[in-house]
Specification:
Blueprint (H helix, E strand, L loop, with lengths): L3 E2 L12 E6 L2 E2 L9 E2 L2 E6 L2 E2 L8 E3 L4 E5 L2 E2 L6 E3 L11 E5 L28 H11 L4
Parallel strand pairs: 1-4, 2-5, 3-6, 4-7, 5-8, 6-9, 7-10, 8-11
Length: 142
Amino acid sequence: FSNLIGAADAVAGDAGRLNVTFHHNWWADNIDQRMPRTRAGQIHVFNSLYTSSGNSYCTNAGYDARLLVQNNVYRGVNQPFTISTYPSTPEHNGNMRIQGNETPGSTNVSSPSGDGFIPPYDYTLDATGSVEAAIRSGAGPR
């Protein structure tokens, strides 16, 4: 398991505090899930690389989570995008907006249609076609 933001559903005090940005990260061998897994937060994931084949799932929007997932490369992974649903309280379902991602060789690729959120900061997206080479040249095993 890699990155868990928000330890449990409906934890008092978490709403509005868990705001995290991940960019230019590489989730690789031996990672099964939580790349990241989020509850009650606003999470921005962009320009990152996923090559953790044999995994359960990658990016997940859980209870009261809002994710913006942009210009990432999900190469040969399972379930790049997952949304946790809560049938008894659908107002707390996860929300994910995906834009500009590539999923070559991946399986169980869904297309969430949430609206995510608008980050309160400026950032520049790298072209998706250059993300993998840039990350591999600056990170990982040598």
